């Protein structure tokens, strides 16, 4: 990967963590780093004594401080900033359409704090044309870049862009890629013991799912022979299986389906991983053009 990684900043601590992560990622990829903030002056929104010029100075100072901090830690990195006068959602969607990756800060993880992604982030995640990475505060002392890249795989339903992003990320890190597929017994078979027996005689449902996972990964293993791949196939809830295999991940990659041009949504697995994974989560549209 190369090109540009863009970070949406809002002056919060979790956005600063996202900028730090994005700077490391940009340095690893050989990409430029772009720091942006969307701002519209609305004097009636908040009851405080101030003016447009003062608020604009604060925003520009925030961007300058972020750039100085990142440049100080990564002196060879090409870092630019821009203050965009517009609402956050359209601004970030436009950035996502032009950047290789858009990076946003997540406010927290866990049963309660995991639901604090924010309405702006959720709207961007649902509609972004390209990959969006949500970054929260790190929970492990081990360096994330040395850990596995984990990708959720649904054979026959995953887009090439998702697997390309995951394999490329693993190659850049020199990390193992863990490809996770969760399967369940089809309802029709569960109510038909005779049918289930015949399937089991033909190596069983587990073997069928393992072979489907292997077949899905084969062209990408051929493209990235340097990446060590662990194939994990397990019966159970897709979100639970993926999360249990992501405890020590450095990055989790999930897909987002687009059902039609007017309806874009986060699936239940992607939604669960965003709320509960302790590693940065990359959400890649299935219909995103690879490369």
What does this structure look like?
The chain has 291 residues and is α/β, with parallel strands linked by helices. The chain folds into two domains: 1-137, Rossmann fold (3-Layer(aba) Sandwich); 142-291, Rossmann fold, CATH 3.40.50.12370. The chain contains ten helices and twelve strands. It has helices at residues 13-29, 52-73, 88-98, 119-127, 160-173, 187-190, 193-201, 204-223, 238-244, 268-276, and strands at residues 4-8, 32-38, 79-84, 101-105, 132-135, 148-152, 177-183, 229-235, 249-256, 258-260, 263-264, 281-285. The strands form two sheets. The protein has a ten-stranded mixed sheet, sandwiched between helices. Strand 6, helix 5 (160-173) and strand 7 form a beta-alpha-beta unit. The longest helix has 22 residues, at 52-73. The protein is elongated and about 70 Å long. Mean pLDDT is 84; it is low at 109-116.
Topology:
Blueprint: E1 4-8, H1 13-29, E2 32-38, H2 52-73, E3 79-84, H3 88-98, E4 101-105, H4 119-127, E5 132-135, E6 148-152, H5 160-173, E7 177-183, H6 187-190, H7 193-201, H8 204-223, E8 229-235, H9 238-244, E9 249-256, E10 258-260, E11 263-264, H10 268-276, E12 281-285
Parallel strand pairs: 1-2, 1-4, 2-3, 4-5, 6-7, 6-9, 7-8, 9-12
Antiparallel strand pairs: 5-12, 10-11
Helix pairs in contact: 3-4, 9-10
